[in-house]
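Bug: token stream looks shifted between consecutive jobs. Job 1:
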Amino acid sequence: GINAEYGKQWYQRRVRVSTERCTLLRATVNFTNLTSTYRRDLMQASSLSFPPKKLFSLSGAEKDERRIILEMYIQSIGQQPDIAKSNLFVDFLLQSQKEYNKLNEAESVKLTVFTSDLKPVCVDITGSDYTPEVLRYTAASIGVEAKLHPFFALYLMVGEAKQKSIVRRLQDMECPYLTLKTLDEHHSIEIRKSYWSREYDEQLMQNNVTLHMLYIECIRNLEDRWMKPATETLRKLKQLKTAGLKEQFVKVVKSEHMYGYKQLGPGTVDYPEEGTESPVTVFAGGDNIRLVYKDGKTISLPVIRIKCWKLFPDKKGVISLEFLVMKDVLRWINISTDTTNVILISMMLQSLLDEMIQVRDGRDLELTRIREYSGYLPIANKDRKQKQSMRPKAPSFSALNNQDNELFMEGINDNDL
């Protein structure tokens, strides 16, 4: 079609970012702007080149081919943390989501967010509110103290009642209301704890609201049956639950070695034997990825021994981890699973790594970008210049090889290998 305002030809592009497809009804010039502003940095961050425009109109097959290349390109640059958090990239994706949904940014809407005990919380927002803001409104609505907001996140869930499973954590670059609007009735949004370290539990246990949320998550983990306490422990937990002793209940559950792990789905892996496809269930927690095999055998892959990991836009359902199996020996471990689970594994792995770096550097958990981008929302053009001057400078892009691990080999000595 022709954009009458700009006189530019535009095409409807469907581009996959993480597990979602967002239709980008953008003038072709706006695709180019994404690369032209930071051309040098994006060239370093991606092995792919931005597909050039053609002189003549594209045929149907050529449009499909260009769509696939654009999809791969955006996935490639979006995997780099600095780019994914930049104002340029976030604004590009937010505006695309809003334009496709023909959103009136001033319109008030109601969004239902579920708590850990599956109680609905109706939050009054605008459809343009992005994830960190909706998280802040939700946490405040259920009585979570502001200082404890950083310990929670919003998750996209799928399934009915207690059979819900995590699809992924909602990203800064999306509007939760619009994300949910494009999905069927089996999807919902839930507020859950966002951290991995058991040490942070102590802070939540000092507040009745967050203690209850922690208590309910413990019960749900036990009901999932992949945490297997001894018979005597189960008897003690039943007594504590009956007596309403939530803090003691949580402390007993915390003593289980699988406490705090998240199940990321079933799949197959070519490890430890290369060339095989062994059925496993993948978990993330503590400081490792854990593979539980069909025969009950468990293998842990410590995060500090994962040099990097790859996602393949052209190979759906595969994530590859470059793992230090022994001293001076690296090998690729390929996990094959559902495409949604592949994205979830990558996101959880990055989340584990981010938290470990925070702990190493002695930094407190920070509420995702709310403090850093206080008041940030894409706004009308007439106010954009003034609003942008109030934003902090976007981080510079750094050249990364796939998803590099800043903690690789840190603290490992020869005796550990």
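Job 2, same session, no restart:
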Amino acid sequence: MFPDPALLKMVLVSLLWGSTNPLIKRYSVGIEQCHSTLDKVLFLLRRPLYIASLLSNQLGSVLFYVLLGSTDLGVAVPVVNSLTLLFTSLVGAVMGEGRFGVRGLLGTLCIVCGTALCHLQT
């Protein structure tokens, strides 16, 4: 009756990674102007939204590591990677980075079907 906890963890990791990728990109705009590594580090440290996005992304990495301890590697990795791509595309489209047309919808359908097949395998 309840969804599989492992699947919920995979979706959570994917959501954390996928939603923060476009945010990290947006909040690091202007780093190209920095010339030294120290300038780049200081530039990013002065951006609280960048730091928050990066920490959320790293939280996803920690949860992924925990997930791998209790889930089949052959299922967890493809499911998380494909759903991360899906969430990155969706969040990017919402943020105005591109449109999500027919090809995006077909790709989403393929990802959802592939995720379902991977989950049914277990």
